[in-house]
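for the writeup, i need someone to sanity check this before i put it in the appendix. the sequnce is what the collaborator sent (i think, or maybe the updated version? ugh). structure was predicted straight from it, no edits. if anything looks off just tell me and ill rerun, i have time this weekend
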Amino acid sequence: MTFNYRDTRSNLAAIDATSAGLDAQKGKTLEDMSSMVHTLTMKISERKTRLAPIIKELRPLRAQCQEREVSILSTYVANFFGRRGHKVCLSDTNF
């Protein structure tokens, strides 16, 4: 099988056309992906903005809850060991 100049030139033209089509397809895909990233970034930003005041309100409530848990636990431990005649220092226990 021998190739002459015309065959080679026509093959190169076909390859160039295919390559151009693939490049256009890649460009479209990149644009679509960029659009999706932008949309997701905007949604995340909106949700952060919406949740920020709720989280700010939740933080002190969480701290109060932890304080109450410690208070309840220390009362429980004191009552539990108080009934058995043992003295326990809460810093010696591993909770």
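The first helix runs from residue 5 to 83. The chain has a mean pLDDT of 86.
thx in advance!!
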